Amino acid sequence: MGKEYYYFASSLPSIYFDSEPPMSCDEYLKECERHIPVRDYHFMKTLFGAKVLDYAFLQKLIRETRGEIKSHNKAFQQGVLFNRSFRNEVAAFRAQRLGKDPNNYIRGDRHPSLKVLEVINQADKAPDLLEGEKILDKFRWEFFDELQCQHYFDIEYLTIYGLKLQILEKYKEVRSSKGEEIFDEFQKMDVSSIIK
What count of other Cβ atoms lies within 10 Å of the Cβ of residue 93? Predict the structure, then answer.
């Protein structure tokens, strides 16, 4: 069992999906720097500096590790594998809907489940792109909730907390005036002309 951070973990404000983040990821990292050992802090800094939920980061990580995601942080490892599998299913769904071969768009193995396919179908039927994205992120959040139940006061708990903060921060940016402008512009685009 790894080191536990009772004071730091218990001092963090509760967070809920679709709420305002109580702090930015940068502020969270500053708190991590104050409360956890250097090795764990450097891991967190790398993790949140790279935006682990970002597709480009995942692809780079998977290439560098030849598909074998190994980390001393089991929550991170499980989160990356979940996110890759989930993204594969979203890509396969979208490719099939456009009449494309899904194998050209997935990375690694597919592990479809009925729950994942149900969530993707719900997102596809959402009234707009933002609502569809929220459905997908809510599913990610629920995965993190389940994972977090297995960890209390340890570095994995702190990692999951940070991953959830990233989701909240994403929607804070979307709700900003600049985010609304970009989203409105994207909604007006003819996406089918881009995808060939």
Answer: 19
> 38-50 vs 25-35: helix axis angle to the nearest 10?
170
pTM above 0.85, yes or no: no
Distance CA 23, CA 166 (A): 10
**Can you read off the two tokens belonging to residue 2?**
């790894």
Q: Taking residues 152-167, what's their average pLDDT?
A: 90
Among 21, 18, 44, 19, CA closest to 31: 44
Q: Is 188 helix (H, G, I), strand (E, B) or coil?
A: helix
Please report the pLDDT score of residue 8 as a whole number: 93
State whether residue 154 is helix, strand or coil.
strand
Judge whether 31 and 16 are in contact, CB under 8 Å. Answer: no
Tens of pLDDT along 31-60? 999 999 998 888 888 877 655 555 555 555
**Rounded Cα–Cα distance for residues 75 and 28 (Å):** 18
Largest CA distance in the chain: 53
- DSSP-derived letter for residue 113 is -
Domain range list for the chain: 23-194
In angstroms, rounded to a whole number, what is the distance separating the alpha carbons of residues 118 and 186?
25
Which residues have a Cβ under 8 Å from the Cβ of 185 and sit 6 or more positions away? none
Residue type, position 23, single letter: M
Query: What pLDDT is stored for residue 6 in this prediction?
Result: 87
Instruction: Tell me if 131 sits within 8 A of 49, measured CB to CB.
Output: no
N-term to C-term CA, the chain: 50
